[in-house]
Amino acid sequence: MRFTLKYAALAAACAVAFPAHATNGSFLPGFGVKSLGAGGVGIAMQEDALSQLANPANLTEIGMRGDLGLTLLAPKRSARMGDSTGLETNNFSANFGFNEGDESGNPLFLMPDMAFSMPLSERLSMGFAVSGVGGGNSTYKKNIYSSTFFPNTPNGDVEDGAGVDLIQLIAPVSIAYKLAPKHSVGASLNLAAQRFKLNGAGQFKTFGGSGISSDREFLTNMGYDYSYGAGVKLGWLGKFLDDRVVIGATWASRTYMTKFDQYKGLLAEQGDLDYPENFGLGLTVKPIEKLAVSADVVRIRYENVKSMGNKGPGTEEDGFFYILGTLTLPGSPYRLGKDEGMGFGWKDMTVYKLGVVYDATEDLTLRFGYNYGKSPVRPGQLVFSGLAPGIVEKHYSIGFTYKLKGELPLEISGSYMHVPKKTQEGCDQAVVDCVSLTMSQRVLGIGFGIQY
After folding, report:
1. What is d(CA 110, CA 200) in angstroms, rounded to the nearest whole number?
2. d(C-alpha 326, C-alpha 212), whole Å
3. Which phi and psi angles does 223 have, rounded to 5°?
4. Rounded CA separation 385/137 (Å)
5. How far apart are CA 252 and CA 57, in angstroms?
């Protein structure tokens, strides 16, 4: 136990030190190396202590176990605005001087995680974990929002560089109870922390003369700010047909976070950025003893978090192009930072996960997976998403676990996830006109586990 707590503290420190770049919108596709190797499934699959993050009811099936993993994320992302996209347009906005694009630097990110589970009695189990849950990052040496028509500094120069850095950490304390031999329920108190920084948006301070922020002194280039909060997650697990069919269901409340005071002129509701509510169903079928096929469907409700769901610049009928002239008025309810202030314009997202787990030998387990979620970025809401282009949709993965010989029941796991390039682009994006976003990703993980 002392050994596990020591590594819990280490994992928590590392998770704060290194940013993540998620691939299901702003969420990671799965929790832990084993889950990532099987497409991110976990609601009805109990392979390690980290599965309590997917469904707290899984704890009753895990026993006493500790897991520690490290994932390397290698995203490649770029954004282009205005004429630099090369897209043909007849929109008058092409005359507003937007003509810049860049590929983001900072290509590698480390993401640690850990978890521990322990039975307290024949029916009652507890566990805790520390893991990154999501985030986003971009580091552009060129300012993708630069415009010769709208200078963004007092001396008329265009500010060098632009980017955002968001990491989101979750640390659930969980408990699970067996209602009957084949049915369990679980609950987690999800403690959470996040870190945020934005630079390069100074142009919006002077856009239209007085800017489009409700408090432009707290809009950009304020360094790192931190936020803390909590939410709850509930889960159920049931086994049927001699344990050959396992069904799980989960619901996670919105995680309410303290506000980013240093960015109260940027994020809606004076700097609020909560983790969105999400819920899901999982099914695992074991047609033969050595084979398990698992599927999850998860719904993420980005629209209910105003900084994520509120509409941003755009020319769709309910976008902000038609009221753009009123944004610079102090009384406008759509100015950045206000309760109805502009956001990323993301929509709710449904993620489909499929995983296959095969016990090739007594010591070797193989995994294969697929994960799909349609981009949450609306076609007419591409402008702000250039900072965090979480637009990728398809994920292919493989993985393994090998049980090492020796006195300790130690196992080593590995996974690789390939995320093909996705481009989302379009014109008529307010005064920026054309926007083109591109992202791809590779994810490599290694993990260690002990089954006591």
Report:
1. 25
2. 9
3. 70, -165
4. 11
5. 13
Do residues 202 and 221 make contact, with C-beta atoms less than 8 angstroms apart?
yes
**pLDDT tens digits for 177-190?**
999 999 999 999 99
**Number of residues that this document lists for the chain:** 452
Residues 6+ apart with CB under 8 A from 135: 19, 20, 21, 22, 26, 166, 167, 168, 194
309 and 347 in contact (C-beta within 8 Å)? yes
DSSP 278-343: EEEEEEEEEEETTEEEEEEEEEE-GGGSHHHHS--S--STTSSSTTGGGTTSTT-TTSBTSTT---
CA distance 88 to 83: 9
pLDDT digits (tens, 9 = 90+) for 148-167: 776 555 444 456 788 899 99
Low-confidence ranges of the chain (pLDDT < 70): 1-22, 90-95, 150-159, 207-210, 315-330
| Closest listed residue to residue 36, CA positions, set 451, 444, 437 | 444
User: Are 385 and 423 spatial neighbours (Cβ–Cβ below 8 Å)?
Assistant: no
State both tokens at 170: 């979750």
Predicted TM-score of the model (pTM): 0.91
Structure tokens at 325: 């002239």
